[in-house]
Write a structure and sequence with these properties.
19 strands, binds flavin-adenine dinucleotide, 398 residues, eight-stranded mixed beta sheet, single chain, binds 3,4-dihydroxybenzoic acid, alpha+beta
């Protein structure tokens, strides 16, 4: 069976679904092709923090109803190290802008609902997805997305393809070797994350540096906590029974305030994620545009991945709007350069947060002292606090 659309989108994660939503509001047709079921995509436990502009975008484009009810607006964030807890006060540092704790699962569910309500086509459980005929940016052959659905071969002809299929997708590897330059760094640790039926012990997130490694206290709802521990990159989760996880969290998140207590609870889910920084440049090849994790990965310490995916598709949607309205290609041609400026600033920030807060096994006592001095500086200097806060809540969208 053959279909025709303006923009064929591979991947129904936050990047693909948000792009489809934005395009529909601009009167541009799209079809999303996803290899997994909606349930699978929605159930993946991933990001939790939205930059304010991302939340504002959801509200302004009509998909922010639940976000406004259930999103937790945080006007500060905590760092804990060397027996001290420091609060970065966003009201004071960045004029009242903030972050919103609202899980990726809900973002994705809201977007799936919006696509369904608008009659948007999202084809899930697509097998053997491939992309073809996209090399020529100008006219030439129409780009194609091919896949099998329920055993039947299908093809979508499109003006453009958006590769929103994440780090392990098919779009980036379909670009000829040599056309892309890859920049990357793999970190010698990962994060062990849990979701727990334990009310968060702090109203705001706590990033903790300790002699035993990094820990992070976050949350999903006022009843459900989300916590992370720095671990080995290939950590065997079976060696981490719930009691051991709580014991380690207690040690790493310990406060000098005797009244503070980390509340424990039933562990609902646990998993280990590796950490890397990765950028593929340029983010375009002919009629194929890469967006989100398909083009770049950040270590999660800065809470930037989902927000960067959203920023990419905002730039891409605007460029496509201009193309369909006027036939002009300038913005499409400038997509990669524009998106990459933000990507690299987020890369720098995520790398810096990761380097400051984690223990590296190649570090010696000098490096530990250096890290403590950096934390002391970053929490002590108004200028440094402002720099951290400005990046953490998200740099302005151009
Ligand atoms: P994905 O979410 O990976 O979506 C890609 C989609 O494409 C998937 O649904 C996949 O099934 C589909 N797909 C893949 N291959 C194919 C194929 N061949 N054919 C069709 N479909 C395909 N970011 C933040 O901003 N804040 C945070 O607090 C944060 N915390 C994180 C914590 C953890 C533990 C992790 C792992 C990530 C975190 N991130 C965070 C990062 C964030 O989750 C990602 O950056 C985000 O999911 C990227 O969205 P995406 O749509 O680009 O890619
Ligand atoms: C969460 C994840 C992050 O990577 C982060 O920096 C903050 C919060 C979270 O999952 O809640």
């Amino acid at each position: 069976m053959s279909l025709r659309t303006q923009v064929g989108i591979v991947g129904a994660g936050p990047a693909g679904l948000l792009l489809s939503h934005l395009l529909q509001r601009q009167g541009i047709e799209s079809v999303v092709v996803e290899r997994h079921t909606r349930q699978y995509v929605e159930d993946r436990v991933r990001a939790g923090v939205l930059e304010q502009w991302t939340a504002d975008l959801m509200i302004e484009t009509g998909i922010g109803g639940r976000l406004k009810r259930e999103g937790m607006y945080h006007h500060g964030v905590m760092f804990r190290f060397a027996g001290r807890t420091h609060r970065f006060d966003f009201d004071q540092l960045v004029g009242g802008r903030c972050i919103i704790v609202y899980p990726q699962n809900k973002v994705v569910a809201d977007l799936f609902d919006a696509r369904a309500a608008a009659g948007g086509q999202v084809i899930t459980e697509a097998e053997d997805v491939s992309v073809d005929d996209f090399a020529n940016a100008g006219d030439g052959a129409t780009a194609k997305i091919r896949f099998r659905k329920g055993g039947e071969a299908q093809e979508i002809e499109c003006d453009f393809i958006a590769g929103c299929d994440g780090f392990h997708g098919v779009c980036r590897p379909s670009i000829p070797a040599g056309a892309l330059t890859v920049y990357d760094r793999v970190y010698p640790f990962g994060w062990l994350g849990i979701l727990a039926e334990a009310p968060p012990s702090s109203e705001e997130l706590i990033y903790a540096y300790s002699e035993r490694g990094f820990a992070l206290l976050s949350m999903r709802t006022p009843q459900i906590g989300r916590l992370y521990l720095q671990c080995k990159p290939d950590e065997d989760i079976h060696e981490w029974p719930d009691e051991r996880i709580w014991e380690e969290l207690q040690l790493r998140l310990a406060s000098s305030d005797p009244k503070w207590k980390l509340t424990e609870g039933k562990v609902l889910q646990k998993g280990v994620t590796g950490m890397r920084s990765f950028v593929a440049e340029p983010m375009q090849y002919g009629k194929l545009f890469l967006a989100g994790d398909a083009a770049h990965i950040v270590p999660p310490t800065g809470a930037k991945g989902l927000n960067l995916a959203a920023a990419d598709v905002v730039v891409l949607a605007k460029a496509l709007k201009e193309f369909y309205a006027t036939g002009r290609r300038e913005q499409l041609d400038g997509y990669s350069a524009k998106a990459l400026r933000r990507v690299w600033k987020a890369q720098r920030f995520s790398w810096w947060m990761t380097s400051m807060l984690h223990l590296f096994d190649t570090d010696n006592a000098f490096d530990r002292r250096r890290q403590l001095a950096e934390l002391d500086y970053v929490t002590g200097s108004h200028a440094a606090q402002q720099t951290l806060a400005e990046n953490y809540i998200g740099l302005p969208m151009e």
